[in-house]
Structure formats: structure tokens, C-alpha cells
Amino acid sequence: xxxxxxxxxxxxxxxxxxxxxxxxxxxxxxxxxxxxxxxxxxxxxxxxxxxxxxxxxxxxxxxxxxxxxxxxxxxxxxxxxxxxxxxxxxxxxxxxxxxxxxxxxxxxxxxxxxxxxxxxxxxxxxxxxxxxxxxxxxxxxxxxxxxxxxxxxxxxxxxxxxxxxxxxxxxxxxxxxxxxxxxxxxxxxxxxxxxxxxxxxxxxxxxxxxxxxxxxxxxxxxxxxxxxxxxxxxxxxxxxxxxxxxxxxxxxxxxxxxxxxxxxxxxxxxxxxxxxxxxxxxxxxxxxxxxxxxxxxxxxxxxxxxxxxxxxxxxxxxxxxxxxxxxxxxxxxxxxxxxxxxxxxxxxxxxxxxxxxxxxxxxx
Length: 364
What we know:
Elements: E1 9-13, H1 23-38, E2 43-47, E3 61-63, H2 75-87, E4 91-94, E5 107-110, H3 115-118, H4 127-138, E6 144-147, H5 150-160, E7 167-169, E8 192-196, H6 205-216, E9 222-226, E10 238-242, H7 249-255, E11 258-261, H8 270-277, E12 282-285, H9 288-294, E13 303-305, H10 310-322, H11 328-338, H12 343-362
Parallel strand pairs: 1-2, 1-4, 2-3, 4-5, 5-6, 6-7, 8-9, 8-11, 9-10, 11-12, 12-13
Helix pairs in contact: 1-12, 6-10, 8-11
């Protein structure tokens, strides 16, 4: 393990925190708090040109002010650099596909997945990322690159022509609040399946709903959808909760018959790990990144299905609803697997990447 020899002042892009919920925002906040806690001599700044708020955090985790004048509204070109100079920032971490346009200090970019380039229809709002990120990488403006899984690391190296020693896998984690719990606000109605995540095409929610409808014909079981952008026609048994407080999630995970995540493509699949850490049964696709997180199809910590096969998904859901106790050992294995991840470990691995970026920048 690499170790640092002196304290450093770090800035992280806080733009993901301007959105109310989502995996990238959770990553940004949890990582910043873990870095501040694990390295109390460091100073950590969360910077954005848009307003945001964070919960109470360690005293060495600070929030910047954003643009102070019209010129600084050109954030990635001028404003961010000026804000970092005011704060004495020595290294920047772009937590969401971006880094400053001028290489005045070492920088690290997190590439969560390649969904913006695989199918533009999956993320209609990602056109800026689609154009900008490849240019930043080709120009070498990101000193180092972080990916959440080895699956994405290999894909990013190939897609963007990156040097392998410039790209490091750093897994994500589920927060400490995610643990087996009694539901604080159990959904009314029948026992339920649960999906947690933003509604977007690659999450495969239309097929998920179709599979649930097949099960619902013969078994009184509901489907609960949690996350942004869910707008589905009302029908008996389909419960759309939308965005809910994070504090309610462990109870919902723990109370579900199974948590469903038949995604067509993922970079990590954080809700899968959150559900596992709550001791929930998970039914997920065979996406390579999800398999990496769960430990592989033969590790028996989640039930993996073909994301394109509605009948297979429905049959697995039906088995979970009718024979829940048969999967108790799967749930226990999921808890053991989830214990291998933590934000403290993520922070330590990330801090090592910062050290590597600092050394690489000084020799460039």
C-alpha cells in the first residue's frame, strides 16, 4: 500500500450533489466524508458552480462558494481554477466524467461507466459528457482515471486508448446505515418486490413491470418503485414511491420479498450492494459489472437472470415469492459478501490514486 507523507488540500466536483438523489451524488458525498474522516490532516473541499447542501460532516470537509463574478461562470475554464486557488487546492477529483480544461494541478477523473457512448438513447441528457469527456482524456487533462469495477476499467482503456497504468479500479460501497432493519414506513398492501433507481431505459423497468404482471396474475404481490423520474400508469399493486429519504431505504430493502435489478448495463450497480448489505434477496441481471460486485454467477449471493428474458425473470420472482425460506442461505452469503466493501476502504484506495496522480504530474 502506498502512503502519503504530508497533508494535502483536495477538491471534489460537487455538481452531482445538486441533484436530489442518484448513485453519482451518493458516491460523491460518501467518498468526500470518508476521505475527510480517514485523513483528518487533509482539507477537502466540495466545489460547484451550482448551489447544494450536505449533511453535517467532519470539520475538515468544506463547501465552496461558487462563481463570484460573471467571468467565473465559465466554471470549467476559469471559475473553478480561481476557486481552487482561493482555497489552496493542490489536487482536483472530477467525480462525474470531468476535470478542469487547464492542467494547472494534478487531477483525477471518475468514469462510472460507458453508457453515454454505448447507446445515446439510454441517457438523453448526457450529450455534453459524450462530447467533452473523450477530449479531456485524449488531451491528458486527467492525470489519473478511476473506474468502479475492473469491467469498466478494461472497457475505458479500450474505448479511449488510455495507458493501463493510468486507470485504477476503486470499488464503491454501501453506507453504514444500510443494514438489516425493520421497515420504518412499510408500504401498504401485499408483500412486495422492490426496485430502487432512477427510471431510465437501461434499467429495463418496462420488462421488470411486465414480469411482475405475470407473477401478479396468480400471486398477491406488489411492486414498489423508488427513485427519480418514475411515471407509470396506475394499476392495482404497482406502487410508485418516487424519491424517498435515504433513512427509509434500509427498511424497504429489508422488508422486500426480493430486490429487482435486471439492468441492461451497469458500471457497478450500487442498489445491488445496498440490498445485499441489508440482508435482502437480490434478483439481478448477468451484467458483467454486477457479477463482479456480487462475486460471480457461481458465488450464490444473488439470483442472476437474463435481462432480456421476461419469462425467466418472472419465474425467478415467482420462486422467491412462493418459497422465500429456501433462499435464506443466499441472503447470509450476500451479507458476508457485502461486508468486503466499505467507504473507508474506498477512501484509502482513492487517496492512493491521488498520490499517484501527484507524482505523475510532477514528472510530466
